[in-house]
Specification:
The complex is a heterodimer of chains A (239) and B (191). Chain A has 239 residues and is an all-alpha fold. In chain A, 72% of the residues lie in helices and 0% in strands. The two termini of chain A are 40 Å apart. Helix content of chain B is 75%, strand content 0%. Chain B has two domains: 111 residues; 69 residues, Winged helix-like DNA-binding domain superfamily/Winged helix DNA-binding domain (Arc Repressor Mutant, subunit A, Orthogonal Bundle). Classes of the chains: A mainly alpha (239), B mainly alpha (191). Chains A and B meet through helix 1, helix 3 and helix 9 of A and helix 2, helix 3, helix 6, helix 7 and helix 9 of B.
Chain lengths: 239, 191
Amino acid sequence: MNPNIHITPEEWSLIEAHLDDQKVSKASLLNIPQLEEKIKQIQTIREEIEDSIRQSKIKAFHSHILDKKTVSMKRSNAKTIWYSMAAVLVVLIGIFWFIQRPSASEKLFVEHFKPDVGLPLKMGTTNSVEFYEGMVAYKQGNYKSAIDQWQVLLKDNPTNDTLNYFIGVSHLAEGNSLKSLQYLENQEQYNEGIFEEDAAYYAALANIKEGKFNEAKRLLEKNPSSRNTELLQEIEHLK
Amino acid sequence: MEYTTQNQMEFPLLDAFLTNKEAPIREFYIAEYPKTKRHILAHGGSLENAKDVFQDAFFSCWKKLSDGKFSPQTITEIQAYLFTAAKNKWIDIKRREGKNREVSLDTYIVSMAEDDNLFKEEKDKKEEQLTITLGAFEKLGRACKELLTQFYFEKTSLKLIAEQLNIEEASAKNKKYRCIQKLKELASELN
């Protein structure tokens, strides 16, 4: 997957239609600069996506297989193991709660927080100079400046998921978790969008930073993804 | 659906591989895994080895079938290909570990499965890239994963996807494009 050749949405559509043997105007197709390279890139990306899904399905198939060793162990020792684990767990929870409680949230936050990589810096992908400049600042780690740029746009588009998401992540990167929640926690504005699970992830991290583990759990459970589930499991382990 | 080796199932299974129909492929996976597991356990491997080797062989088999590079006439040929590919992969692993220098003696099926050993460098590079893309795909949000799976794997038309999402076809097309951009970003981050 080579991200260096930029392909616009219109080019992508035309080339895909051509690859799928749909009727495409030859003239429009030939007007595309670096046509051959772009066709090759789209073919590769399509193949890689299909292969990734295949591999992910194969991994899932295996969850339907119960290996005998696991089954027999579960049957013969299940009760003993369960009681031992429960006893150990009770002791561990007590010790862990006593020792770790003051710093557990901060530790978990630091381990997991990494600002979103941001959107590609191509003017073609956005029709707003302010958004582009904000994204440049964001990618350079100038979160305050990015927030200032985007806040102007947000006034006219208060429910825009992209703006809310990146402003929220920027506030979190600045260490302001409560402020970030104002932009990340409203799940309705992310509904069915591409930031839905990611917004829940960062909102959960902001809640973790505030010590609100139950709220973080609720968000992660409601919006499953591989990293959301991973974070959820870590919260479970803490408790 | 109960998996069966009866003749009437041969073409549906092949068709399932060619069109990515999940349920029959999963049944086939579950039915075929024990044979490879027994073989790996009997030849010095662990359950984890059996799982990895079988998944690797299963992926090669699925890919060869869908690319049209392997055109079996019967289900037995698919089973033989899968098992031989798994055996060869295990021999390869053991050979690399320096513990086993045996060479497979099977004939036709072996030579087909051993195509995998050709152009090894190119193949390794492709596998590495695929691991990156898979990692990026798994990090994608649920909405993007579903949309890309429907379009690229289940081959559902954009028109139908748009209807299911209750949006215009142009919006679905735009969403798909944004999902691919996100996937590319995640992949370049992992690269």
